[in-house]
Amino acid sequence: MKKNNLYTILVLFLIGFQLQAQEVLTIENALKIALENNFDIKIASNNLDIDKTNVSTGNAGMLPKLTANVVDSNSIQNSTQTRQDGTVTALDNAKNNSLNYGVGLDWTVFDGFKMFAKLDQLKELQKFGEAQLKRTILLKITEVHAVYFDLVQQQQQLTALDTTIMISTKRLELAQNRFKIGKASKLEVLNAQVDLNTDKVTLLRQKESYANRKTVLNQVLAREAGIDFKVVDQVSVDDNLVLADLIALAEKQNPQLEAEIINKRIAELQLKQIKGERYPLISVNSGYNFVDNQSSLGFTSQFASKGFNYGFRASLNLFDGMAQNRNEKIAKIQLENSKIAIEQQSLVLKTELTTAFKTYMTNLELIDLEATNEAIAKQNLSITVDKFKIGTITTIEFRAAQLNYINAKVRYSNAQFQAKLSEIALRELAGNMSF
C-alpha cells in the first residue's frame, strides 16, 4: 500500500514538473520577445543610430577645420657654389635641415546656403530611418501574429483529432462487444479498426506539423529552436474595425507612405543644395607656423621664423559647361518623381485597405456560419452515437457523422484564423501597432 502511494506521488510530481517545464506563451509575450531579440529589428535600429549620429553641424559643413602640420626635411649633398666674382665654394656631405610646424584653420562661412539644406537633409534621413524601423517592426509583428495564430489553429485541430480518436476507440469497443454477442459481423470490427488507425495517422501528421510550426515561431522570436511551449487556445478577433478610420490612420502613419513623403522632402533639399552652386563660395583661413632652416653652405646658415597668418578666399562659378543647369533640371525631375510616388503609394494603400476590408468582413461572416455548422454537427454526432449504440444506423453513417463533426471544427478554427489574419493585415496597412 505504501509502495502504491509512493508511486502515485511520484507520478503526480513528474506530471506537475512537465507542466511547469512547458511554457505557456501568450501573444503579448511572443511580441515582446520578438521586439527584443529579432535580428531584422536590431539591424534597422542600428541603421537608425547611424542616421542619428550623422545629424550634426560638422557633418553638414558648418564647422571649421583645424589641422596641425609638421614637416621635417633633411638632406646630405655634395654642393658647389660659384659666385659672381668667380669664387668657387665646394663642400662635401653638406647638411641641410628644414623644420616647419604649426596649426591651420579653414572655415567655409558661406556656400550658398548649402550647409543649412544639408543639415535639414540629414534630419530627414533620420526620419526616413525611423520610418524604416517602424515598418520593420510592423512586418515582424504581422509575422509573429501569423505564425502564433497558425499554431493556435493547429493546436485546436489537435484537440479535435484527440476527440475523434476517443470516438473511434469507443466505436471499436462497441463493435467488438457487438461481435462477441453475435449482433455484428467481423467486417464491422475491421472497418472500425481501419478508421481508428486512419485517425491515428492523421493525428501523427498533425503533431508533426504543429511541432514544425513551433520551431518556426522560435526562429521568428530569435531563440533556441528546441524550446518547448504551448500557445493560448483562443483566437480573439476585433470585429469593430471601420474602413474610413483605417484609411485616415494609414494616411497619417503608414510607414511606406511616410517614407515616400520624406523622400519628397529630401529631393527638395537636394535641389536647394544644387541651386546653392550659383552663389559664391567664401571661406576664411588662418594659422600659426614655426619655421627653422639650417644650411651648411650658402649665404645664410640658419633661418627661423614664427608668426600668425590669415586671409580669405572667394570663388564664383561663371561657366561650367552648362553642368549647373543640367543638374538643376535633373533634380527637379527627381522631385516630380517623388510627388508621383506619393500619389501612387496613396492610391495603392487605399486599394489594399479596401480589398483587405472586404476579405475581413467576409471572414467575420464565415466565423458565425462555421460556428453554427459546428454546433449542428456536434448535435448530429451526439444523436448518431446514441443510435449506433442501439444498432439502428450503419457504420458508414456513423463515420460520416464523425467526419462531418471533425471537419466542422477544423473549418471553424480556420475561419477564426483567417479572420485574425485579415484584422492583422488591416492594422499593418493602417500603421497601427497597438494590438
UniProtKB/TrEMBL annotation:
<keyword id="KW-0812">Transmembrane</keyword>
<keyword id="KW-0813">Transport</keyword>
<dbReference type="GO" id="GO:0015562">
    <property type="term" value="F:efflux transmembrane transporter activity"/>
</dbReference>
<keyword id="KW-1134">Transmembrane beta strand</keyword>
<dbReference type="InterPro" id="IPR051906">
    <property type="entry name" value="TolC-like"/>
</dbReference>
<dbReference type="InterPro" id="IPR003423">
    <property type="entry name" value="OMP_efflux"/>
</dbReference>
<dbReference type="GO" id="GO:1990281">
    <property type="term" value="C:efflux pump complex"/>
</dbReference>
<keyword id="KW-0472">Membrane</keyword>
<comment type="similarity">
    <text>Belongs to the outer membrane factor (OMF) (TC 1.B.17) family.</text>
</comment>
<dbReference type="GO" id="GO:0009279">
    <property type="term" value="C:cell outer membrane"/>
</dbReference>
<dbReference type="Pfam" id="PF02321">
    <property type="entry name" value="OEP"/>
</dbReference>
<keyword id="KW-0998">Cell outer membrane</keyword>
<dbReference type="GO" id="GO:0015288">
    <property type="term" value="F:porin activity"/>
</dbReference>
<protein>
    <submittedName>
        <fullName>TolC family protein</fullName>
    </submittedName>
</protein>
